[in-house]
């Protein structure tokens, strides 16, 4: 299946975050010249009232997208089944899947809904987890990429570069490292560790800088967890790009200990075995 010709799919449930996921996804669909497909999943036990509510939610989202006057082909569909299962199936033929960070059943600021959590670890395409508009930062904030030593690192960096170019945003590429010393507060050890990690990362960024000389790309290295970096720079971050195989998931990045409820998250597609 050629993902370059597939639709950008958005899960719609009537929440503000879901509608904003659709608005965020417009640029993704326009860039790829593919349809924007807005879908709602209805379980068999929802009945006529549930089906009517789903149609109303999708219709309202379509109206908001069309009000932007962007030249995007909008499709809509009601899928049978529970949201995670239905959207996971839709992801097999999607260029990207976009969902709100919280749905109608989750109103706590800075938390992540069960649908977003389930899809981040199981979808077959990139998954964008988008906050409601009033929680999102100003435009032109950073695109931040988490770099690791895994085989998914280069595809993740490639995706981050693409998103930074699409959104005309500065790119920050972050490597984390674990100290070999028991006292991480040893200032000299931290300085040396950051310097070495940043030097390795800059070597990996050389080719990307050559290809895109106008892109503002900077390397950063921090000891400890990636979420700590996001928390320190929460007000400057627009989008966080992470690999599909990050072992601790995305909940910590989008919750109170991570981005403080500000940044959107893009989880890259799983890597196919060679």
Strand content: 15-25%
Mean pLDDT: 82
* Total count of helical runs of at least 4 residues: 8
Q: List low-confidence stretches.
A: 106-111, 256-260
Q: What labels would you give this structure?
A:
274 residues; single chain; ten-stranded mixed β-sheet; alpha/beta; 10 strands; 8 helices
Overall description:
The chain is of the alpha/beta class. It has helices at residues 16-32, 47-67, 83-91, 114-122, 153-166, 187-211, 226-232, 251-254, and strands at residues 7-11, 36-42, 74-80, 94-100, 127-130, 142-147, 171-177, 217-223, 237-242, 264-267. The chain has a 10-stranded mixed beta sheet with strand order 3-2-1-4-5-10-9-6-7-8, sandwiched between helices. Helix 1 (16-32) crosses helix 2 (47-67) and helix 3 runs parallel beside helix 4 (114-122). It starts with 6 loop residues before the first strand and ends in a 7-residue tail after the last strand.
What is shown here, in short?
The chain is α/β, with parallel strands linked by helices and 274 residues long.
What is the secondary structure topology, with strand pairs?
Elements: E1 7-11, H1 16-32, E2 36-42, H2 47-67, E3 74-80, H3 83-91, E4 94-100, H4 114-122, E5 127-130, E6 142-147, H5 153-166, E7 171-177, H6 187-211, E8 217-223, H7 226-232, E9 237-242, H8 251-254, E10 264-267
Parallel strand pairs: 1-2, 1-4, 2-3, 4-5, 6-7, 6-9, 7-8, 9-10
Antiparallel strand pairs: 5-10
Helix pairs in contact: 1-2, 3-4
